[in-house]
């Protein structure tokens, strides 16, 4: 069992329009992200990649692109659950509320909410 639910954001660069739009929405939902134990991992082809605020080695970013089969130049979001399984792959119109609803429907998240009512 992992401690976080990684949300991988793959984009050509940090100036990619799809990435910027999603990043802005993420900034406004930080409490929801924290409540769901999510960690945001930004992986760029032409800009430094980051795990939360920490820089990532270029080789690690490339390994993640290969692991998830992300084609060059493609904007893609991948949600991985605490169990390590891929829960969602989205390439367009990433709706954060749908991601939160998906997480909230997961058995592990249901247990977390029962065990800690402040995580609702």
Describe this structure as you would to a colleague.
With 120 residues, the chain is α+β, with helices and mostly antiparallel strands. 40% of the residues lie in helices and 23% in strands. The chain has 5 helices and 6 strands; from the N terminus they run βααβββαββαα. Strands 4-3-2-1-5-6 form a 6-stranded mixed sheet. The longest helix has 12 residues, at 17-28. The model has no long low-confidence stretch (mean pLDDT 91).
Topology:
Layout: E1 5-11, H1 17-28, H2 30-35, E2 38-44, E3 50-51, E4 54-55, H3 58-68, E5 76-80, E6 86-90, H4 96-105, H5 107-115
Parallel strand pairs: 1-2
Antiparallel strand pairs: 1-5, 2-3, 3-4, 5-6
Percentage beta strand: 15-25%
What is the string of helix and strand elements? EHHEEEHEEHH
Distance between the termini: 21 Å
Count the DSSP helices. Answer: 5
**How would you classify the helix and strand content by structural class?**
alpha+beta
Low-pLDDT ranges: none
Instruction: Bin the helical content.
Output: 40-55%
Largest sheet: 6 strands, mixed
Shape: globular
State Rg.
Answer: 14 Å
TL;DR?
The chain contains 5 helices and 6 strands; from the N terminus they run E-H-H-E-E-E-H-E-E-H-H. It has 120 residues and is of the alpha+beta class.
Annotation keywords:
120 residues, alpha+beta, six-stranded mixed β-sheet, 5 helices
